[in-house]
Amino acid sequence: MRLPQWAKWLLWAVLILVVLAFASPVGLKALGAALITDDPLHPADAILVIGGESRQGDRVMHAVKLFKRGLAPLLVLSGTPLGFRTHEADVMRRHAEYLGVPPARILTVKHDSDSTREEAGVVMPILKGRGLKEVILVTSNYHTARAKRIFERAAGPSGPRFLVSSVDDGQFKPEDWWKRRRYAKTFVYEAIKTVWSAVEVE
């Protein structure tokens, strides 16, 4: 009997858990590194910061540094509601302006997405509508590999093309993630989301 794709991914998830139970530090480090993509950067059309910002604003700070290096002329800030009359995208905009980005160089994208896949579905038409061909995608290090796959899938063959720049926001260290509860929790959550994102597209 041929297994459906989602069942295959579930089996992979179980296999990963078994490996984790018996893996060596070298193997565990490799699993942590598998979550991260960090592309060589060159000038692009825009820098996109996706939702899920840390309290310290690590993603925006990283994106502003790239902006000031001249890697793109536009900063796109995507986010979801935070609470009463407070929106993540607005907070990110104020932070970027405080750090010296001209308001005219900032585009905010407000949405109420529950996943990176839904967020890509909202953001992608806006990027394509502006004719952007290459975008630097900024997100937390543990989120980079999955985010790139999702955004590239949403972009399709017509693009834009994505270069990923990872941010260390203190939630994950691939070299010793199994030694600290915060890092291990981040790994498990991201591994589950990686499997789920694969199941969603089937």
Tally of DSSP β-strands: 7
- Taken in chain order, the helices and strands follow as HHEHEEEHEHEHEH
| Top CATH class of the domain at 46-167 | Alpha Beta
How much of the sequence lies in strands comes to 15-25%
Distance between the termini: 18 Å
- In the CATH hierarchy, the architecture of the domain at 46-167 is 3-Layer(aba) Sandwich
**How many helical stretches?**
7
The spatial strand order of the largest sheet comes to 5-2-1-6-7
Average pLDDT, rounded to a whole number, is 89
Rg is: 18 Å
State the CATH superfamily name of the domain at 46-167. Answer: HUPs
User: Which class best fits the helix and strand makeup?
Assistant: alpha/beta
For the largest beta-sheet, the strand count, sense and barrel status come to: 5 strands, parallel
- List low-pLDDT spans: none
Q: Report the principal-axis shape.
A: globular
Query: What is the helical fraction, as a range of percent?
Result: 40-55%
CATH level 3 topology of the domain at 46-167: Rossmann fold
Structure description:
The chain is of the alpha/beta class and 202 residues long. It has a domain at 46-167: Rossmann fold (3-Layer(aba) Sandwich), CATH 3.40.50.620. It contains seven helices and seven strands, in the order ααβαβββαβαβαβα. The strands form two sheets. Strands 5-2-1-6-7 form a five-stranded parallel sheet, sandwiched between helices. Helix 1 (5-22) packs antiparallel against helix 7 and helix 5 packs across helix 6. The two termini are 18 Å apart. The mean pLDDT is 89.
Task: Spell out the blueprint of helices and strands.
Blueprint: H1 5-22, H2 25-33, E1 46-49, H3 58-68, E2 75-79, E3 81-83, E4 86-87, H4 88-98, E5 106-110, H5 116-129, E6 134-140, H6 144-155, E7 161-167, H7 181-200
Parallel strand pairs: 1-2, 1-6, 2-5, 6-7
Antiparallel strand pairs: 3-4
Helix pairs in contact: 1-7, 5-6
